[in-house]
Amino acid sequence: MAAPHVAGAWAILREKAPNATVDDVLTALQTTGKGVTDYRSGITIPRINVAAALTQFSDGRRAISYVKAGPAKGTVSFSPSGTVANCRKDCVNRFAPGTTVTLTATPDSGVKFFGWNGDCSGSGTCTVTMSQQRNVTASFYIGDPLSLTYTKAGAGTGSVGFSVEGSTATCSDTCTQTYWKNATIMLSAQPDPGSYFKGWSGTCRGPKTYCSVRLGRAKNVTAVFERLPIHTLTYTKEGTGSGVVTDGGSGAMNCTDSCTNTIADGTRLSVSAVAASGSEFVGWGGYCQGPKQTCSFTVRGDINLSATFRTNAKASAGR
């Protein structure tokens, strides 16, 4: 059974758009909600924003969904004004399709504007064209910015994402990000294909792919990516018939005759034997065994396998 606040939000949206499907309502809630990260698991899910979701079923006007982030206050103004002229907290503003809208962030006295995120970027004014729904975050802070320096280590490749209150950034190499004091930044490591994430060092520790950093002072973090071991996959075609052995399109194997390929450790493969016209598949040998057409396995070392095809006498006689 849904929680009361979820059921209530659902009822409001269905009242606004009685002909909307379940998928329509679910998409409206998921795409307009403000992301909230569980720092225990690193999972980010959208928090329901009914006002923003309602704009998905509006009278044809396009909406800017604005989220205020950061520990300080400020105002975001819109020109032209739309349904509202300015916002000091989360709000939704609607405009006629195709309208060009300029957003200006003005921090309160003693406050600094950190910058935009979403459909706006940088720290100046932002201009968007209302050809579709727009999502914008503005962050305000007090004091001097602090740095979080990321260093990429290891022979592998990958990227680290930074997320704080709707503001996101990604680095594939050593970089420095700046935030306000006491900001809580969620870091997530994503290895490239052929690499794996070994772990963190510095402010972050351990092998989990995510890490939460509270920035009370300038800090440093290192993510180590290493290359996956490479193994040899050797296929031998046997028998008087013909056919192809394929992995379904990943490129690791597509052989009509004996062949050898290299593949990264940990790769999950499903190889299938497909007999040519006038032949039939008899069975596997080596690493794979038995007459089933498909053999699935995870590569953890060098692999040798064979497939036997034989001439189909009935098919041959009919030609």
In the CATH hierarchy, what is the class of the largest domain? Answer: Mainly Beta
CATH architecture of the largest domain: Sandwich
How many domains, as an integer? 4
Largest sheet features: 4 strands, mixed
The rounded Rg comes to: 28 Å
Oligomer: single chain
Order of helices and strands: HHEEHEEEEEEEEEEEEEEEEEEEEEEEEH
In percent terms, what proportion of residues is strand?
Answer: over 45%
Widest β-sheet, arrangement of strands: 6-3-10-8
Shape: elongated
Q: What is CATH's topology name of the largest domain?
A: Immunoglobulin-like
Number of strands: 26
Q: Uncertain spans, ≥5 residues at pLDDT below 50? A: 315-319
**C-alpha termini separation:** 63 Å
Question: What is the fold's blueprint, element by element?
Answer:
Blueprint lengths: L3 H13 L5 H11 L1 E5 L4 E5 L2 H5 L7 E8 L4 E6 L6 E2 L3 E5 L4 E8 L4 E7 L7 E4 L4 E8 L4 E8 L4 E7 L2 E5 L3 E5 L3 E9 L3 E8 L7 E6 L3 E9 L2 E9 L4 E4 L7 E2 L3 E6 L3 E8 L3 E8 L7 E5 L4 E9 L1 H5 L2
Parallel strand pairs: 3-10, 11-18, 19-26
Antiparallel strand pairs: 1-2, 3-6, 4-5, 4-7, 7-9, 8-10, 11-14, 12-13, 12-15, 15-17, 16-18, 19-22, 20-21, 20-23, 23-25, 24-26
